[in-house]
Amino acid sequence: MPAQVVLGAQWGDEGKGKLVDQLATDADWVARFQGGNNAGHTIVVGEQVLKLHQLPSGLTNPNCQCVLGSGMVIDPWVLAEELETWQASSGESPLGKRLWISERAHVNLPFHRLYDGADEKIGTTGRGIGPTYRDKIERVGVRFCDLDSKRSDQTWLDESAARMTSQLSARGVEESITSADLKESLDWVADKFGHAVRHTGLMLDIALRQGESVLLEGAQGCLLDIEHGTYPFVTSSVTSRANASHGAGIHPGHITEVFGVVKAYTTRVGNGPFPSELFDDVGAHMGEVGHEFGTTTGRPRRCGWLDLVVLRHANRLNGFTDITLTKLDVLGGLDELEVVVGYELDGVPLSEMPANMDDLARVTCLTETVAGFPALSLEEWLDLARKANSDGAGFAALPNGAREYVEKVEAWLGVPIHSVGVGPDREATVYRA
Ligand code: IMP
């Protein structure tokens, strides 16, 4: 059976969680393949609202095997907290039973978080993600399979602690790391998680060859990709389809279905150019109605119109087979909607994003205006979605302006829209008829 992938097509926070939760209900396996606890995903279990940062969404399906893949950087302390929260709400301890950690995944240590905490330029989540990937690239990182050899190697402990302390000091951070601290950290991680460390790429490959279904769960979004995003205002991993297989440890041929998740408008957190950003009442409406606050840091998200230049870029890199449009309800009540269809730089029209951030910061947006549609209450949207799905009307049930918006986005991108989100409830999704 082929693997499915869910990816963010913008700057993250597109609402991937809702789709991933739905797909995870039927999946035999769900794997994260990049990033770490910079991601945030809210799930509702009964009356409880849980915020997950590293645990894959398949957790809520008791029959699903969950993998933290080799392309990830994992903070074991945060993982332990997430597991405790999960156990308190579900009574289950999945670690080493149906939750597996790749032997090749890198360990995000207290040093990495301290170092990242001093970031002032990028507006990172401060979770130590970039510094852990930097150590991976410098080939001084600690993988889960290396815990035992590293913790018993005093020379390595001494040298690493000295390196960490001097890097912290060069960054203006006063804390120091001793070799005893480092050993204590590695001991704790090895004792707590050692029994769940596996060759997860092989496990996924075998599962796929046996006809089981695998869902690869992306974090962040295309414009935060280290290579093709708005560098340097990006995360430190490859967020694309190409890395979904690689970061999970399987070959790309396994992937045939790629869902690009697109918010009906655009948001970003952190610093960096954002051409369609709005600083007016419309932007405030999006932020307020859409509850646009980061799941991980609680920071308000910057808001702006839907940007097709961004989406074309994302589609070229990822070859989306389906688009999932989210949060369309948030645009209800606006008189007119604008969509960015191109940029202009120094009087020259551009159909692609400039790679240089000074240029991107200077582009002006070329927009098309479409009619707005009325604001409905959450209950009205939910009723509309339930009815549209049960009577087979699909998108035809959407209010006029909303339906036209969906049709336009589909035509502009040339990728079929698989579903349209019209509210936070799981059932507030209108599926294509
Ligand atoms: P880092 O991933 O913590 O290094 O942060 C780098 C940039 O990516 C910052 O602008 C963050 O706000 C952004 N970022 C990281 N993770 C997410 C996410 O899950 N959603 C949205 N933005 C994110």
Structural write-up:
With 433 residues, the chain is α/β, with parallel strands linked by helices. It folds into 2 domains: 3-102 and 199-431, Alpha-Beta Complex (Adenylosuccinate Synthetase, Chain A, domain 3); 106-195, Adenylosuccinate Synthetase, subunit A, domain 2 (Orthogonal Bundle), CATH 1.10.300. The protein is built from 14 helices and 20 strands. The protein has helices spanning 16-24, 76-90, 110-116, 129-137, 147-151, 154-170, 179-193, 200-209, 241-248, 281-289, 308-318, 357-362, 378-390, 400-413; strands at 3-8, 29-32, 41-45, 48-52, 65-68, 73-74, 99-102, 106-107, 197-198, 214-217, 255-263, 266-268, 302-304, 306-307, 322-326, 336-345, 348-350, 364-371, 417-421, 429-431. The strands form 5 sheets. The chain has a 10-stranded mixed β-sheet with strand order 9-7-5-2-10-1-11-15-19-20, with helices on both faces. The protein is globular. Residues 11-13, 38-40, 122-125, 127, 129-130, 219-220, 224, 233, 235-236, 269-270 line the site of inosinic acid.
How would you sum up this structure in a few lines?
This protein has 433 residues and is α/β, with parallel strands linked by helices. The chain contains 14 helices and 20 strands.
